[in-house]
């Protein structure tokens, strides 16, 4: 296993998913989210994919109880849709256990389910749109509350950035010395080769 | 230099009058002194002073007898539910029965000696991709039995045909003792052998008790220590925290039992660190606690559909 400090630096960098675009707490009435797009990005599926990769983890982190189902289709030119399910506050909330539990699929086997009793849906077309647009639509539709970074997290972020900057400088320096060493070695090898050939020619 | 100043200090303590006196330098010029007596202030690279660089033997790389163990004071550790919350966020939108939770158990162990190695039956089965093929006489009661036990491909000559055609619908293959001769004659060893599928008595895959063998194959997982770490999958992404905790407990108990068995042989091993990760997620060192630190999150929140 790798040393502890290096591991922790890397982990802290990764755990930036607590903050940033998408870190928001959804209101109570959002019952589940269904997202559907294609494997291939041509045909306007890059935005949805980036939304899934960059923003969805942050949403999932702050709302672990909300099922987020991603259905990736294997066809070439399919739809790219997000379905947000809201439960009505008046009626008793449909328990998630009673509805059929759908799982994410990478083979297109989980199409958007029909809304249960006491549920309404809003469909967003994501095709050929940038992930930031999709996110702002999503946040506006659900009226989610963005999560701000705590001062502690801000300090940590700044420290990490410092570390990265210093690392970049150090790396450049090391590269320079290494390259000089290699050049020297190559020149020496060339000279030795020439000397050997001269020697061979003389005898 | 230190000795002279010490000397001066001690002299000063004796009498102030003599304090200013310095030790008299020798009257004989340095040149005239025999070379042996001359205090040499010049340091030579080689001890003998004969001049010239002497090649040193290449530095030997230091070898360690035990696997490296790190100081864990800077290590951030997480409770099981906290780690699961992060990992579920990282794996959002992935099929939950394909993505697995993995555990990495680091041991304090010597590099030589026996390794921890065993088979475990989990309280909640982890593997979701075991496809078993059974070679047994066509149209026999064994064929029906194998089908009922969950075999995907059953038969004798029909199965050999599909193997020769390069079609492997299974990733585990067992053979009934009645079909042993047919398997020998079928001449499929060259195709099955490289994939590690060829049934053999030594591996217990030529059997007369299909039920026991298939049950063993579906429900149990093997693990072994490599480089001082036991790595294995302990759950599917769709598992609840309690299910994962049960599986983790089962693993830790068997590993501890294995370690105790090895200690008796005089090769002490002890637990160093337990790390949880997933197929695509980062690794979290566990602190042995269960509940989430965020009081807004309950363990049952971490079992929603993925």
Automatic annotation (TrEMBL), chain A:
It is found in: Mitochondrion. The keyword Ribosomal protein applies. Residues 94-117 are annotated as: Disordered. One of its GO terms (cellular component) is ribosome. It comes from the Eukaryota. InterPro entries: Ribosomal_mL43/mS25/NADH_DH (IPR007741), Ribosomal_mS25/mL61 (IPR040049), Thioredoxin-like_sf (IPR036249). Residues 94-110 have a biased composition (Polar residues). It holds the Pfam family L51_S25_CI-B8. Its main location: mitochondrion. The keyword Protein transport does not apply. Residues 40-145 form the Ribosomal protein/NADH dehydrogenase domain. One of its GO terms (molecular function) is structural constituent of ribosome. Keywords: Mitochondrion, Ribonucleoprotein, Ribosomal protein. This is CI-B8 domain-containing protein.
UniProtKB/TrEMBL annotation, chain B:
Residues 285-306 are annotated as: Disordered. CDD domains: Ribosomal_L1. It comes from the Eukaryota. The keyword Iron-sulfur does not apply. InterPro entries: Ribosomal_uL1-like, Ribosomal_uL1/biogenesis, Ribosomal_uL1_3-a/b-sand. GO terms for cellular component: mitochondrial large ribosomal subunit. One of its GO terms (molecular function) is structural constituent of ribosome. SUPFAM superfamilies: Ribosomal protein L1. Keywords: Ribonucleoprotein, Ribosomal protein. Belongs to the universal ribosomal protein uL1 family. This is Ribosomal protein L1-like protein.
């Amino acid at each position: 296993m790798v040393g502890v400090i290096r591991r922790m630096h890397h982990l802290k960098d990764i755990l930036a998913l607590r903050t940033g675009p998408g870190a928001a707490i959804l209101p109570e009435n959002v019952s589940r989210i269904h997202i559907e797009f294609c494997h291939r990005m041509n045909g306007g599926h890059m935005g949805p994919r980036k939304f899934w990769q960059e923003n969805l983890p942050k949403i999932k982190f702050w709302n672990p109880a909300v099922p987020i189902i991603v259905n990736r289709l294997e066809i070439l030119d399919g739809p790219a849709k997000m379905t947000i399910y809201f439960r009505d506050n008046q009626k008793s909330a449909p328990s998630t256990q009673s509805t059929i539990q759908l799982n994410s699929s990478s083979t297109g086997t989980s199409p958007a389910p029909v809304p249960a009793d006491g549920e309404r849906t809003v469909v967003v077309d994501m095709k050929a749109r940038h992930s930031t647009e999709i996110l702002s639509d999503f946040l506006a539709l659900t009226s989610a509350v963005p999560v701000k970074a705590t001062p502690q997290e801000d300090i940590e972020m700044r420290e990490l950035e410092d570390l990265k900057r210093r690392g970049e400088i150090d790396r450049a320096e090391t590269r320079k010395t290494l390259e000089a060493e290699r050049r020297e070695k190559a020149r020496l090898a060339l000279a030795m080769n020439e000397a050997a050939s001269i020697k061979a020619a003389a005898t | 230099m230190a000795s002279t100043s010490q000397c001066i200090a001690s002299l000063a303590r004796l009498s102030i009058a003599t304090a200013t006196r310095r030790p008299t330098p020798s009257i004989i010029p340095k040149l005239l002194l025999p070379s042996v007596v001359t205090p040499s202030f010049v340091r030579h690279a080689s001890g003998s002073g004969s001049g010239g660089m002497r090649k040193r033997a290449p530095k030997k790389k230091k070898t360690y007898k035990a696997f490296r163990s790190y100081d864990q004071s800077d290590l951030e550790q997480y409770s099981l539910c906290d780690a699961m919350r992060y990992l579920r966020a990282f794996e959002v939108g992935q099929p939950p029965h394909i993505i697995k939770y993995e555990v990495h158990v680091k041991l304090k162990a010597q590099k030589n000696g026996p390794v921890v190695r065993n088979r475990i039956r989990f309280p909640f089965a982890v593997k979701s991709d075991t496809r078993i093929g059974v070679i047994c006489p066509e149209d026999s009661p064994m064929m029906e039995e194998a089908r009922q036990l969950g075999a995907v491909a059953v038969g004798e000559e029909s199965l050999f045909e599909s193997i020769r055609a390069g079609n492997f619908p299974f990733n585990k293959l067992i053979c009934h003792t009645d079909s042993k001769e047919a398997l020998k004659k079928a001449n499929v060893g060259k195709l099955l052998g490289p994939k590690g599928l060829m049934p053999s008595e030594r591996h217990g895959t030529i059997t007369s008790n299909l039920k026991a063998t298939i049950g063993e194959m579906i429900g149990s997982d093997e693990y072994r220590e490599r480089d001082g770490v036991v790595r294995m999958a302990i759950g599917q992404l769709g598992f609840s925290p309690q299910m994962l905790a049960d599986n983790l407990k089962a693993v830790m108990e068997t590993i501890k039992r294995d370690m105790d068995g090895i200690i008796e042989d005089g090769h002490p091993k002890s637990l160093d660190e337990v790390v949880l990760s997933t197929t695509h997620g980062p690794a979290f060192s566990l602190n042995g606690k269960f509940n989430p630190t965020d009081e807004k999150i309950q363990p049952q929140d971490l079992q929603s559909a993925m």
